[in-house]
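SRPBCC family protein, pasting as requested.
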Amino acid sequence: MAAEKSELTISRLINAPRSAVWTAWSVREHFEKWWIPKPMECKAVKLDLRPGGGFETLMREGQGPFQPHLEGCFLDIAPEQRIVFTTALAEGWQPIDPWLTLTAIITLEAEAGGTRYAARVMHKTPEDSRKHEGMGFYDGWGSVIDQLGEVAARLA
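Structure tokens follow.
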């Protein structure tokens, strides 16, 4: 179903405690294992989880060179509870012009012995939201949440 508003949401129950999910999100070596759907690889250039901190990832498929994937800025961080980032700003609140402007609010809540991982992704317009959905938002973000769950389960 096409997005009728400028927001997309997705959530999954991860079979690992919030502390393990947080570690998988906040420690670069763990983060790089799940952030981009396999078989692509991720390199985290910046992962400075503090308001104003930089967030930049590269991706590659096969043995090719790493290519830009995402650049953004963290807006709010509450360890083991919430991560908010935007692609409208780079590190230090510097405005940028990304290929897709979004702000994501990630929440982690204890549920049924695991962690409810939810992402609310806001776009500038409903058209941008439909574009993101058409690019495979649900498959892509769903795949990486599943990968996050695998990494977090190993850390638990």
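Note for the archive: The chain has a mean pLDDT of 96.
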